[in-house]
Amino acid sequence: MRKIFLILLAILSLNQANAQGKKTEKATFGMGCFWCTEAIFQRLKGVISVKSGYEGGTLSNPTYEEVCTGATGHAEVLEIAYNPMVISYDELLEVFWKSHDPTTLNRQGADSGTQYRSVIFYHSAEQKALAEKYKAELNKTNAYGKKVVTAIEAAKPFYVAENYHQNYFNKNGSEPYCRLVILPKIQKLEKVFKAKLKN
């Protein structure tokens, strides 16, 4: 009996370790300038970390200057680590769709070029299916009055952007760009997704 109890205890411990190991998942979104979008996702409950970087191009370890030429094929993206027990991928997609204009090809506001394209890099078949379903629904209901052009692609190598790009709004909130461009996006987030924000 004691042996059975010890085996059951070992199995339960293993299952608990597996469940704890699954507490973090990854989402990768490109939605224009990563300075603007990083600040949005950092404020969501369940988001553990947000890294600004580059994905989807042909050059290994690209620099910001190289990506800005548009010649490398990379998009400015966010790699988001999140706890799916607190915030679902579906909820992250909702914030993604409502925090930028997914109908403009290779452009967000004044930022123009393929590096500013609207793109979802999925990390699983489930993420791909959810993103495609959501996009199809937006187009079917004509939610934006124009067709959603967001690309949905398999994740590719992610390259972390230079240190000065990380945590940009929190470090430079008083700069004119932050006050004029990023702050209104955060204010919109606070209105639309108040219940999802960290305290």
Automatic annotation (TrEMBL):
Keyword set, alphabetical order: Oxidoreductase, Signal
Function (record text): Has an important function as a repair enzyme for proteins that have been inactivated by oxidation. Catalyzes the reversible oxidation-reduction of methionine sulfoxide in proteins to methionine.
The family this protein is said to belong to: Belongs to the MsrA Met sulfoxide reductase family.
Reactions the enzyme catalyzes: [thioredoxin]-disulfide + L-methionine + H2O = L-methionine (S)-S-oxide + [thioredoxin]-dithiol; L-methionyl-[protein] + [thioredoxin]-disulfide + H2O = L-methionyl-(S)-S-oxide-[protein] + [thioredoxin]-dithiol
Pfam families: PMSR
Protein name from the UniProt record: Peptide methionine sulfoxide reductase MsrA
GO molecular function: L-methionine:thioredoxin-disulfide S-oxidoreductase activity; peptide-methionine (S)-S-oxide reductase activity
Residues the record marks as active site: 33
EC number: 1.8.4.11
NCBIfam families tied to this protein: msrA (TIGR00401)
SUPFAM superfamilies recorded: Peptide methionine sulfoxide reductase
Peptide methionine sulphoxide reductase MsrA domain location: 26-178
Alphabetized Gene3D superfamilies for the sequence: Peptide methionine sulphoxide reductase MsrA (3.30.1060.10)
Keyword Signal: yes
InterPro entries: Met_Sox_Rdtase_MsrA_dom, Met_Sox_Rdtase_MsrA_sf
Organism annotation: Pedobacter suwonensis
Signal sequence, start to end: 1-19
